[in-house]
Automatic annotation (TrEMBL):
It catalyses: hexadecanoyl-CoA + H2O = hexadecanoate + CoA + H(+); decanoyl-CoA + H2O = decanoate + CoA + H(+); octanoyl-CoA + H2O = octanoate + CoA + H(+); (5Z,8Z,11Z,14Z)-eicosatetraenoyl-CoA + H2O = (5Z,8Z,11Z,14Z)-eicosatetraenoate + CoA + H(+). It comes from Paramormyrops kingsleyae. Pfam families: 4HBT. One of its GO terms (molecular function) is hydrolase activity. This is Acyl-coenzyme A thioesterase THEM4. Keywords: Apoptosis, Cell membrane, Cell projection, Cytoplasm, Fatty acid metabolism, Hydrolase, Lipid metabolism, Membrane, Mitochondrion, Mitochondrion inner membrane, Transit peptide. Gene3D superfamilies: Hotdog Thioesterase (3.10.129.10). It is found in: Cell projection, Ruffle membrane; Cytoplasm; Mitochondrion inner membrane; Mitochondrion intermembrane space. The keyword Disulfide bond does not apply.
Amino acid sequence: MVTRVFCQTVLHTVSARPLRSAILRLIPRTALLPWLSSRAVSVSEWPLLSSPPRDYSLPNPSWSTEMRRLYEYYDSLCEKEMEGGEKKPGGWGRLPSYNRTLKYAAGGKCLSKLLKEKARLFTRNTEEQGAAFEYVVFMNKSEKRCVCIFQAGHLLEGPPGNVHGGAIATIIDTSLGTLAGYLSGIVMTANLNINYCSPIPLGSVVLIDSVLDKVEGRKTFVSCQVTSSDGSKLHTEATGLFISINVGHLFGG
Ligand SMILES: CCCCCCCC/C=C\CCCCCCCC(=O)SCCNC(=O)CCNC(=O)[C@H](O)C(C)(C)COP(=O)(O)OP(=O)(O)OC[C@H]1O[C@@H](n2cnc3c(N)ncnc32)[C@H](O)[C@@H]1OP(=O)(O)O
């Protein structure tokens, strides 16, 4: 049962294939085989869990008109299942986002001894909608690129009226880390290099466009530009180096 719930949640919550495989490697192969061979798991199986975790990357009432417009634009480019089961090709996919990804990926059971009860993903640690990081990531597999739509809330103030540089670094780390993790499995940030070009007004919506530069062994090099939502103003640019790790490294191994 635990294995079943584990597989089901991994397959639903972690859509990046290398990352999903890495998490699935956490438990014995023999226990996984029955599930991996019956790969088709549908959303209707969620009721096996007490309640599905909240997906923070879906629209909520705090999203501005601009945030919604951009969400709807990228959502319209996503692969969609049409009537008759055919897939409308799009190239893009929206990544769901949870405040305790590793816990949910493990069905709340397998890793519960290792995970701190009060720990929450930094960017999803407030229930007050719109107060801090509101964002959604759309991934384009074939282009090895992702776009993060980010609306900065009032708790992220640095210079008066503008977003704190550390908050900008956080959303850049998140975007680049999501892309690197999607392409290379479980990774950690080894280096971030950021040029702050123009301030980001608090409450505004910006786009973080991230691309893969190269992969060399365990090293995944990525870069991004943060621009105003119409692309006319460059706010920030950054490069990042992410190193592939074994999951044991996260727990001091
Ligand atoms: C994260 C897992 C999640 C799992 C579930 C995911 C669900 C997704 C959910 C939500 C997505 C949100 C996404 C958020 C993303 C945020 C990510 C972070 O913020 S991570 C926190 C900050 N980073 C650290 O705390 C690292 C601390 N550093 C280390 O632990 C080690 O230094 C590490 C792992 C980076 C490398 O250590 P070594 O011992 O494994 O490897 P060595 O041999 O040192 O390096 C390998 C190669 O990389 C080069 N290298 C290492 N660090 C370098 C550096 N700073 N600059 C240049 N090269 C470097 C080395 O020279 C070496 O290169 P040569 O193979 O010899 O060519």
